[in-house]
Amino acid sequence: MGTSMETGGGSSESPVEPKKGRSKTPRKPKESLLKQKSPAEFFAENKNIAGFDNPGKCLYTTVRELVENSLDSAESISELPFVELTIEEIGKSKFNSMIGLVDRERIDEELYDDYETAKAREKRLAKEARAQEMQAKNAALGKKVKEQPAAKGMKGRGEASFYRVTCKDNGKGMPHDDIPNMFGRVLSGTKYGLKQTRGKFGLGAKMALIWSKMSTGLPIEISSSMKSQNYISFCRLDIDIHRNIPHVHLHEKRINDDRWHGAEIQVVIEGNWTTYRSKILHYMRQMAVITPYAQFLFKFISDTSDKNVTIKFARRTDVMPPVPLETKHHPSSVDLLLIKRLIAETSKQNLLQFLQHEFVNIGKAHAERLIGEMGPEFSPKMPIKSLTDQQIVRIHQLFRQAKFDDPTGDCLSPAGEYNLRLGIIKELHPDMVATYSGSAQVFEGHPFVVEAGVSVGGKDVKQGLNIFRFANRIPLLFEQGADVVTRTALKRINWASYKINQMQDKIGVFVSIVSTKIPFKGTGKEYIGDDITEIATAVKYAIQQCCIQLKSKIMKKMQAREQQERKRNLSKYIPDATGAVYDVLREMAQLHASKRKHYEEEDADILKKVSARLITKDTLTEKLAQHVEKVDYEMALEYATQSGVSEEPREDIYIQTLESENKFIDFHSPIFVFRLIS
Amino acid sequence: MADTTKAKKRRRADPESSSSDQLQLPFKNRLKPDSVILESLHSLLKSTSSSSSTSSKPLTLSDLSLSSACREVTDLSLLSVQSAIESLILSLTHSILSGRGFSFNVPSRAATNQLYVPELDRIVLKDKNTLRPFANNSSVRKSTITAKILSLIHQLCLRSIHVTKRDLFYTDVKLFQDQTQSDAVLDDVSCMLGCTRSSLNVIAAEKGVVVGRLIFSDNGDMIDCTKMGMGGKAIPPNIDRVGDMQSDALFILLVEKDAAYIRLAEDRFYNRFPCIIVTAKGQPDVATRLFLRKMKMELKLPVLALVDSDPYGLKILSVYGCGSKNMSYDSANLTTPDIKWLGIRPSDLDKYKIPEQCRLPMTEQDIKTGKDLLEEDFVKKNPGWVEELSLMVKTKQKAEIQALSSFGFQYLSEVYLPLKLQQQDWL
Q: Which residues belong to any copy of the Spo11/DNA topoisomerase VI subunit A N-terminal domain (chain B) (predicted)?
């Protein structure tokens, strides 16, 4: 949302302006280098800052931008989201036919980058022969044959892979006439207030469109319908990057038979499924964790059917977190530019009203005191637009020094403990899970809320720590090492003190941070730094709270296991113990019988019985076993009375509603109906 | 023990070789002739033997009227150990037959049950006991192992033979699982029976070695420790077969590390300055501690210690001096009073200009150990030690004995130790 948008905004009119620049200094030839860039151009040239580093990452970022747009759109009309994402691999010849290019056979082989010279070929064949020999040897020795990596087809620069990415949702849709501008123009954010948003840059599908323009040149296709509309808007367009305007190929209204509302966006881009497959799947899975009220259908389609993937992430709840509210800026979080912008855009007339209404946590009395503090040239009634630059600097200085109440977290929309918990259970099926939702805290004038979940056990979870990070309810997958959550879980939590084995247990750590401004680090905005004490402390506290809950559960479990295994464990040692005692008794009995040693009466009696085999090892074993039995019974009774009937708190379960078209076969009986769903 | 011709040759050879590299060895020029140094050692010996003769009988626990009851063990004959075990087993049998199961009442060796007695200058065990019932999940293992060890010791008594701790462990690997478990229970058993561990006829493998001006009999064979080659004589694991100690040494040199010991033994340091050199190669075992005590008591020699300048060096010194917590029940027999800290002390690092590259920074753990040691009574009683240790914790630097090798491998035996002795620089 932030600064990058503003740069875009400031120069968005640039295409009209260059004439002016040239006319001013016509004689300096160097001036042509100072050509102004359109925002679209800026992002095309610096696509890495928006997460478009390489073809693989581009595919990944395209997916997430589309999915996040869809979720936002559905949530904005309080509709439970249903998102269908399809990635279709497009072979080279298919791609060529799509753009109307005829496949050409190579004639001059040596011209190509992947041409294999005779020498290279010799080398490769020798290597393959060696590998085969090794394999044969290993097979003969009965060793497990390691799968030979399939000889990588030499991939030249020309061998790009192309994908058609389609994302369909049940969201708000877009007004028919706005569609070209919403996609075909990188615009400044005119949003006035401050809001917790999913997107990192607010570029959404526009960046995907720029990338498609750069890599395939194919246009984007948009279908959309709003709730009240009886038609579907269809639009095919691409973007004129230099002029930052949409270039519409087709824009028409089509019939809407299904009363569908939402948007379907289709874009063809260059990508790399092989290397980013797991990242994309992880992203979908983690998205399902943090958004359990949404339903996702993910499909990957290619010509080779064994590569195809279809995953359905089912909805588990119909409780949706509220839509984040727009809020005003906190005085301690604004900078000089922002104050100027607020002044330019405000509808308020004088300074007092401006302070009182354009910021949070400044009441009327407080505003008056602040104005008094600013100096004699300030007065409550002075017109806000008349402030000089120096006066604005003075206001900014005072904002930085004065004390204000912390902003409340009311404007935030955390996932909620319930949703986080459900998400974890749904996707990981852990043995145990605990969640905690912290109260709102503040960093540099922006409120934030930390929620955490810790799970133990589960399917598809590896041993040790598995860390899942979320910022403003989207998963973070890259640059995990330096992140505040990773560092905290790894270094500052003493897992052993919660009876959790950091190396052997399958631990899932989920931390979701929401804020009006997430303090990301790194160019790709992929992690939150470890150097912010407020956040680090809140994260640690939240994880610890989960661990405390888990500890009591784990202790209970261990106790129960001990109960079950006590008798077996004790009985295991009976032979060893009685054997040791009996060995000494037997030796003593011999000494006694040979009169080499004298014993007291009662003891002598026992030794006599040992000699006469009236007391044997079995006697001792039997007696000790009886004792163990008795103790076990007593302790079990004590455990039962102590633990009583304390049950786990019950949880609501969510049962998905069935589609109404289903036909049922009913079996009626006087007391119930048995309904078969066909 | 008399100077052999070979030793004479060596002694003559030494000054020659060292005079050539005199310039390289710092502080060498400060050394006075050996006769002066020997003079100072004689005075040390005199003061030691006179002080030990004045206090005719060493203090024992019973002489003191301590507020809390303490426990000590004594050497018991094989027969009394056997009887003790038999009566214990009989009481267990009664208990089992009457359907009450069984349990052991074991003296606790936890840190909270330890007490440092300044009058005795050693740690003793207080009288707290812990019950070890069989029919309990947490103690079933230990009580079974205890019964097993008792039965094994009983067999040793009947046959009057010695076995090692390792032998004991291998009699039932499945039950004991690892040797630390059987070793720990063995100490419990000697506590429980009120006898020393050597009375149980269980010994540890040889670890310590001794070399120098000492003659003693080992199981009837006379041993001359000057004629044991470079490695010296291994200290016999059971002290009861050691006797007839004789020596013309002026002091006993206790060395922490094997490396320093080998250097001194090879250089025949004990011939230049008559002494007995002992090492246990790290943490001292029971045999070495018993042997050192026996030498000190019978020969009335002063003991000087050469340990690393780190918290562990001082810790090892404390184990020789006032006993370990693990074996505090037998501290009366295991500790050697009045050990002097000769080196390497933290103040030596600057005094002898040990180069920076040979000093190591202390780790967090080191510093913590150092600070903990400062709280220990046996350190506090000696103001000199407190000063040295505080300096170590402050500078956060440690150095091993081997750091002296930076001036040449023989710097230790030719300059450092003679100079230390000459200056009577011990605490």
A: 141-202
Neighbouring C-beta atoms of residue A3, cutoff 10 Å? 10
How many A-B residue pairs are in contact by the CB < 8 A criterion?
90
For strands B360-361 and B397-398, give the pairing. antiparallel
Compute and round to an integer the Cα radius of gyration of chain B: 24
What is the rounded CA–CA span in Å between residue A608 and residue A629? 29
Give the best residue of A627, A629, A630 to mutate against chain B (max B CB count within 10 A).
A627
CB distance B287 to B23 below 8 Å: no
Q: Which of A569, A587, A627 sits opposite B100 (nearest CB)?
A: A627
A580 and B147 within 8 Å at the Cβ level: the answer is yes
H/E segment holding residue A433: strand A432-437
pLDDT at B54 over 90: no
**Residues whose CB falls within 8 Å of the CB of residue A628, separated by 6 or more in sequence, listed in order:** A567, A570, A571, A574, B101, B134, B135
Kindly give the parts of chain A with pLDDT less than 50: 1-26, 28-30, 148-158, 188-192
Task: Please tell me the predicted confidence (pLDDT) of residue A618.
Answer: 92
SS3 A126: helix
Chain B: give the shortest CA distance to residue A582, in Å: 9
Chain B residues whose beta carbon lies within 8 Å of the beta carbon of residue A566: 137
Give the A-side interface with B, CB within 8 Å: 562, 566, 569-570, 573, 576-581, 583-585, 587-588, 602-603, 606, 615, 619-620, 623-624, 626-628, 630-632
The distance from CA B272 to its chain's CA centroid, rounded to whole angstroms, is 25
Phi, psi of B389 (to 5 degrees): -65, -40
Domain coordinates of chain B in residue numbers? 26-57+204-422, 70-203
Distance CA A459, CA A466 (A): 12
Assess contact for A90 and A280: CB atoms under 8 A. Answer: no
- Show the tokens assigned to A203: 């570029």
Q: Do A627 and B143 touch (CB under 8 A)?
A: no
Q: How does strand A520-521 pair with strand A527-528? A: antiparallel
The pLDDT of residue B92: 92
Helix, strand, coil tally for chain A in percent (to 5):
45, 20, 35
CB A299 within 8 A of CB A310: yes
Distance CA A616, CA A607 (A): 11
B411 annotated active-site: no
Residue A453 · residue A496 · CB < 8 Å: no
CB contact under 8 A, B134 and A581: no
Strand residues in A477-591 grouped as ranges (E): 506-515, 520-521, 527-528
Q: Which long-range contacts (CB under 8 A, 24 or more apart) does A346-351 make?
A: A346/A384, A348/A384, A349/A383, A349/A384, A350/A380, A350/A381, A350/A382, A350/A383, A350/A384, A351/A378, A351/A379, A351/A380, A351/A381, A351/A382, A351/A383, A351/A384, A351/A387
**C-alpha angle with apex B405: B403 to B406, nearest 5 degrees?**
80
By CB atoms closer than 10 A (0-12, 13-18, 19+), residue A242 is middle
- Residue B86 with chain A: CB contacts under 8 Å: 584, 588
Q: How far apart (Å, rounded) are the C-alpha atoms in residues B337 and B321? A: 6
In CATH, the number for domain B26-57+204-422 is 3.40.1360.10
What tens digit of pLDDT does each residue of A601-613 get? 888 888 989 989 8
Q: Which fold has domain B70-203?
A: Arc Repressor Mutant, subunit A (1.10.10)
Paired tokens of A39: 């925002």
**pLDDT computed for residue A119 by the predictor:** 83
pLDDT digits (tens, 9 = 90+) for B200-217: 989 888 889 999 999 999
Q: Which two structure tokens, joined as six digits, stand for B137? A: 């999940």
B291 vs A82, A298, B232, B414, CA distance in Å?
A: 83, 78, 15, 28
